[in-house]
Amino acid sequence: MVKHSDEQLDRIYGAISHPVRRKILEQLGASAATVTALADPFAMSLPAVSKHIRILEAAGLVNRTIDGREHRLALEARPLLPATAWLERYRSFWEARLDLLEDRIRTRARR
Length: 111
Prior knowledge:
The protein has six helices and three strands; from the N terminus they run H-H-E-H-H-E-E-H-H. With about 110 residues, the protein is an alpha+beta fold. The protein has a single domain (about 5-110), classed as Winged helix-like DNA-binding domain superfamily/Winged helix DNA-binding domain (Arc Repressor Mutant, subunit A), CATH 1.10.10. It has a three-stranded antiparallel sheet with strand order 1-3-2.
């Protein structure tokens, strides 16, 4: 199993902790876009959206290419793998707990 640093996970989870940043990632999941196009659906200034984008870039979740004045952004989903792997470690724990809860509910319902 590959080990990932706490700092890396902190950056990733911090980046996806805000609804605006998650929406930006959703938009980029559909296709690459300019900063202006990404900012369009939000009721906030372009500098505010740019700040969110910089946080996503720092986490490695967004790649920026610059062609003249146009900044084009694309999703880089690979950094989400360590975050997913970290959560996966707890899946069996929670599935076992939920199975136990289901068994207890069914037992009480039969009484």
